[in-house]
Amino acid sequence: MATLQSELDNMTPSSLSKRNQDPTSWLPKPSPQYSLESHQNTINCIAFHPVFSSIASGSDDCTIKIWDWEHGELEKTLKGHTRAVSDVDFGGPPGGILLASCSSDLSIRLWNPADGYKNIRNLQGHDHSVSAVRFIPCTNLLASASRDKSLRIWDITTGYCVRTIQGHSGWVRDVCPSFDGNFLLSTGDDMTVRLWNISVISQPENKLIMDGHQHVIECCALAPPTSYQYLARLAGLKHGPLASGAAEFMATGSRDKTIKIWDARGTCIKTLIGHDNWVRAITFHPGGKYLLSVSDDRTLRCWDLSQEGRCKTLTDVHERFITCLRWAPGIVKNAPASYENSSETPPSGDYAKATAKVTGVEFSDVQIRCVIATGGVDRKLRIFAS
């Protein structure tokens, strides 16, 4: 009751206006800015370009579509995969950003946005459907997860697989790299979550194995440092995490309808309960205070990590199951000196964090873009923006 009274006391027009203008507190409103349609089947995945107002979506219709999310327009359709496109991701070095896609056709394709999204390379090696692809920040490497129970790391400049990582006993559904490029988080059908140290590519180390979910785990995410203060309290730490690394906390979403948050020791510090169906995708708010999730129950939920995971729910975000969720990466407000008088674009998102690590730019210099996107079985791409 005291908490509710405090919230009521703070619900003045001026405080609400201030909160709405603060990007660290921004949350999506029920009505999307755009509802984009063109795919002929389920949308499985989405990815924002780290600099421009472009977003890619991949579908069961075997195509990838490039949209302008600021204007709500379809820009291009990419064809090449022969089966469903399961994941897409933008990444690579600043000035050389690529789009990666993977598919049930066992292949990974690289597309060059600077050359009209020309398909420049195909990566072959997985023995079954490729479920997820993610560029590894600070490197020329790409990570992939597959139904063949393995993770693979690829050199995007040569197209060669430089390492195959074995450990999971079932389909690997998702993979997430840390912002410094030293860790990978993976999960899947064996109901385990695994944290890998890949700082030495020739000898990747399985640092943690986490158990606790009661069904297939669909998605995983590493928490940004901005969330450590809130997650440390959930973990019962008085002075924040013991270390300040890139893999202090992580989250997973499962078909058991729950989301679990884990610490660097592999302990589940919180189970978020509320979804009525499979949890399909999760992402941390760049401001650190919230965790967002989407589910087959057609809701988008915003969990307040500063209040023991209290939940704000947006219902009927899509007309059918929601399959994917992404937050637009932030942009560095003060570009490093190396980008002055340069034709290269200042880094953003993971690039911004990597640049912060290398050049000393503070995380607070990364400007949050208040834009998220969702996709679903209803074949619609929905954009929520401030």
TrEMBL record:
Spans annotated as Disordered: 1-33
InterPro entries linked to this entry: Dynein_regulator_LIS1, WD40/YVTN_repeat-like_dom_sf, WD40_PAC1, WD40_repeat_CS, WD40_repeat_dom_sf, WD40_rpt
Ranges occupied by WD repeats: 36-77, 78-112, 123-164, 165-199, 249-263, 272-313
A Pfam cross-reference name: WD40
GO cellular component, as recorded: microtubule
SMART domains named in the record: WD40
Highest taxon of the lineage: Eukaryota
Keyword Disulfide bond included in the entry's annotation: no
Polar residues compositional bias, start-end: 1-24
Keywords from the UniProt entry: Cell cycle, Cell division, Coiled coil, Cytoplasm, Cytoskeleton, Microtubule, Mitosis, Repeat, Transport, WD repeat
GO biological process: cell division
Record PANTHER family: F-BOX AND WD REPEAT DOMAIN CONTAINING 7 (PTHR19848:SF8), WD40 REPEAT PROTEIN (PTHR19848)
Protein name: Protein with putative role during mitosis
